[in-house]
Amino acid sequence: MAEKYISRSSEIASRLLGGEVMIMSTADSTFFTLNEVASAIWQAADGCTPLSEIVADKICREFDVDREQAQRGAERFVDELSQHGILLVSDQPLWLAVESQ
Amino acid sequence: MTTLPSTAEETVSIEIGGMPIAMRTHDPSFRRLIENRYAGFVGTSPHSQLEFDIDLYEPSDVASAGDDIDDELEVKIEAGEWLLRRGDFRARWSPEASRGHIRQSPSPYAIDAVLRIVHSLVLARQGGFLVHAASAIRNGKAFLFSGISGAGKTTISRLAPPDTTLLTDEISYVRRQGNRYLACGTPFAGELARVGENQSAPLSALFLLEKGLQNRIEPVGATEAVQRLLRNILFFADDPALVELVFQSACEFASLVPIRRLVFVPDQRVWDIIG
Fold this sequence. Notes:
heterodimer, A: 101 residues, Arc Repressor Mutant, subunit A, three-stranded antiparallel sheet, 4 helices, 45% helix, B: 275 residues, alpha+beta, Phosphoenolpyruvate Carboxykinase, domain 3, 2 domains, seven-stranded mixed sheet, five-stranded mixed barrel
């Protein structure tokens, strides 16, 4: 399966409060709250770390979950947020994707 | 646009949350209407932070806009100027010049709407907001009671003991002051149809109202607190920068002011557990 790289959209405002991340789309004011696992993925979404590496380093290690299960959950989370334009997803590091445009 | 004369006699200063806004109209009956509607909030300060010239049109004036207050409200910024538009008014306001112009029907609802919008826009840049909430001062501390229509804002206001100062039963004014917040009275009344007292006090807590079978206060998680607060903040402009400001203000507020759920039965004993 192709690797995924994720980055936070610039059209959002976010804040970490009480261990959870809250996100608001500045385009349509949609509000999201992320649980601890999703918050860890969100905070690691730097556009250049592969999603599989985020899952291995941030999720499996810190939350003691099975690798395959964590990867499936992370893919679902990324798909959902990208549909709302909250996360940007690419099959190459996002700075490369920007340069190639 | 009509250029109106600007004599002191034609100006009414409405001071809400410590911010005087000068309203100028050469229609004496409309001036009296403003003075009566905002009694208690009509300031005497000769210095205003903002100035508006009001130009009235008659509802029968077909060349003017329709006067339906149910028309959709539009608030946008264009070339550094805020444009406010609803069926019963058109307004423009330059934050840089601190001046604006309102063209409206001679109804109090239009000027009420303009005031709410202008205050919410100014407050957003200062970390404050207007919120659908009743508020009151007791023993020097202010409390906010927030909720959608029917949640109990008017009920809790009506049940307040005599030593309580009611700031509003409908729209609360929250101003940031350093690391604390002040709740200020507003003339924006709800079902109680009573203008709030023009006073302010440091905010001690925000209660999310819920009617129940007994009186109790419950903790609320940080994310729920912010989400519920955001739902009740008055927000008019379709502007990404402002959305971000309001979001950050709500988060700041939730990190500095206790937000609790107040489950209550509608009798006076609820006030025993407040404060």
